Amino acid sequence: MSLDRIDIEGTFNFRDIGGSPTSAGDTTVATGKVYRADGLAQLTDKSRADLRALGITTVVDLRDVGERSKLPDALDGLGVNHIELPIFDDHFFPAKQLSREEMKKAAEATGMDLSDRSLSKIYDLMIGHFGTRLAMAVDVVAQSCGVAVVFHCSAGKDRTGVVAAFIQILLVVGRHEILEDYAITSQHLSGGFLENIVRNFADAGISGNLAETATAAPPELMAKILDSIEGKYGENGVEAYLLEHGMAPESPEKLRRQLLAPVNREESVQG
């Protein structure tokens, strides 16, 4: 699995989701096809050249309009297909920051309490209210990974982490590898990166416990989310959940066809 971050100037958590063996044992997830990242607002000429060298032709921005407008992706000159697909459907970080009273009225109208920005609440909202957006994100990756695609949010761990985990599950990657891939974000966003990522969150209007919201990726939280989906939908819970929320029926097979490669037994033995 490619747990190491790729050194792209202006990013902290840019990674390839490939490299993991599948549970079947005879296939592995191809590298150089699907990337996950934090925000791309600080890209430089060098980093844009690096993205071009990676062959990326599609960038999927999972952030809300309030985040995108303050820190737009710096993709000038790349000529990529830039898709804005806000997982929270522009509700969590709207164009204008809501007052407490406006949040209360929105909660009464939609059944979503947007005032609680704790990690567990963010995930509950994502899974409980925005399944259609998650399904759309998986569809876009399935349609784009014939070449190379990167999807990202602000820190590259929550919205991006859930989409990555769902894709890996559809590719039959094991639970241990999925949780490891999710949790490694905490290391990439710690130390010298923390101050910058917290500032970026604040600039994008993300409030609350910024240090935790910005950097924490506890594997037990992701495990709880996956367990709850499997508890409701059965062994193939994530696929059933995504299908119920509108994922194209052909997307899982499209992902497997384009992203699974046979294990090189000779290299495995030598390794």
From TrEMBL:
Gene3D superfamilies: Protein tyrosine phosphatase superfamily (3.90.190.10). The keyword Hydrolase applies. Pfam families: Y_phosphatase3 (PF13350). One of its GO terms (molecular function) is protein tyrosine phosphatase activity. It comes from the Bacteria. Residues 132-165 form the Tyrosine specific protein phosphatases domain. Its EC number is 3.1.3.48. The keyword Ribonucleoprotein does not apply. Keywords: Hydrolase. Belongs to the protein-tyrosine phosphatase family. This is Protein tyrosine phosphatase. It comes from Brevibacterium aurantiacum.
